[in-house]
Design goal:
Elements lengths: L4 E5 L12 H14 L3 E4 L11 H15 L5 E4 L5 H13 L4 E5 L8 H15 L3 E5 L1 H4 L5 H7 L5 E6 L4 H10 L4 E4 L5 H6 L4 E3 L7 H13 L3 H19 L4 H11 L16 H24 L2
Parallel strand pairs: 1-2, 1-8, 2-3, 3-4, 4-5, 5-6, 6-7, 7-8
Helix pairs in contact: 3-4, 4-6, 9-10, 10-12, 11-12
């Protein structure tokens, strides 16, 4: 599978009682497909998989698969501490004919490079689907280092990596030493650098509510090769990226951003709490300013 374009890690909309808001979920999928994203990821961090039961995760997989109805690829997150649990999600992904799976380092366990590789290979054997690896040491405590990547070379399914370390040296290393593993931007404020180093995809939570802006940056850099335009768009997006990352309110911001588009994404599940009024106002202001700026850039350079 070739990972090209914008891949949205889908939110899970909830009612006030934290039950699934089925109509909002259907609306969210329609917005993304209509906007032109290239794929949808179910059970990513943005989808709050960590706060869901196994049954809820399996239901979301099947439900979203039906909503997408083959219009764009669907990638299923297999994140779990136990390898056995991750295998359950991988097998379910295969059963519903997902297009690929996302494999992250098990959180909290602090595995070695060899243990990460064995974990990923076990999941791969269970699903035999294209795999996007997910390197996020900020949450998982460890990197998928060269030893891990070398061990994973025994399976051709490992065809991409979402790199979210924030370490620009890792970006260079992956682009130079592992060209067979496609780079996918997982650090929003480094998107321009990822595209400059050959990344062909971007997994971006903000595309839940601002797919047009994210697609515009991808198109300018990865399709048109116009990094002058790309820098202008990136400059317009940076204030939003700063707001999303500050204060540990990332998921709350994503859900409120979708609510601003008329789709009630509801509250995050506990222990997270919704944004306060000041946070909402700040987010609304930066989104409004970004949209105006990008519209002007697109219009001026059209």
């Amino acid at each position: 599978m070739q990972f090209d374009g914008i891949y949205t890690p889908l939110v899970t909309p909830y009612h006030a009682d934290f039950s699934l808001n089925e109509s909002a979920l259907a609306e969210a999928v329609e917005v993304l497909v209509a906007a032109g994203v290239n794929g949808i990821i179910v059970a990513g961090t943005t989808g709050e998989y960590y706060a869901q039961t196994t049954e809820e995760r399996l239901d979301m997989m099947a439900r979203v698969k039906g909503l997408i109805a083959g219009r764009v690829p669907m990638i299923v997150g297999t994140g779990a501490i136990r390898t056995e649990d991750a295998i359950v999600f991988a097998e379910a992904a295969k059963e519903i004919e997902a297009d690929a799976i996302l494999i992250a380092t098990p959180p909290y366990a602090y595995p070695t490079a060899r243990e990460i590789a064995l974990h990923a290979l076990a999941i791969d054997r269970a699903a035999n689907l294209p795999v996007m690896l997910y390197n996020y040491p900020g949450r998982m405590s460890v990197n998928m280092d060269e030893e891990t990547l070398d061990r994973l070379g025994r399976s051709a399914n490992f065809c991409a990596i979402k790199e979210s370390s924030g370490d620009i040296n890792r970006l260079h290393m992956l682009a130079r030493d592992y060209p067979h593993i496609a780079l996918s931007c997982g650090m929003d404020d480094q998107a321009l650098e990822f595209f400059a180093w050959g990344a062909r995809s971007w997994v971006c939570a903000g595309s839940n509510f601002a797919p047009e802006a994210h697609i515009a940056l991808y198109r300018a850099c990865a399709v048109e090769g116009d990094f002058t335009k790309g820098r202008a768009i990136m400059s317009a997006m940076l204030p939003l990226m700063r707001v999303l990352e500050q204060g540990g309110k990332f998921i709350q911001c994503i859900k409120h951003g979708l609510t601003l588009r008329g789709i009630d994404a509801g509250p995050p599940r506990r222990p997270l709490q919704p944004l306060n009024l000041d946070d909402k106002r700040e987010l609304e202001a930066v989104i409004r300013t970004m949209n105006i700026a990008i519209a002007a850039i697109e219009g001026a350079l059209a």
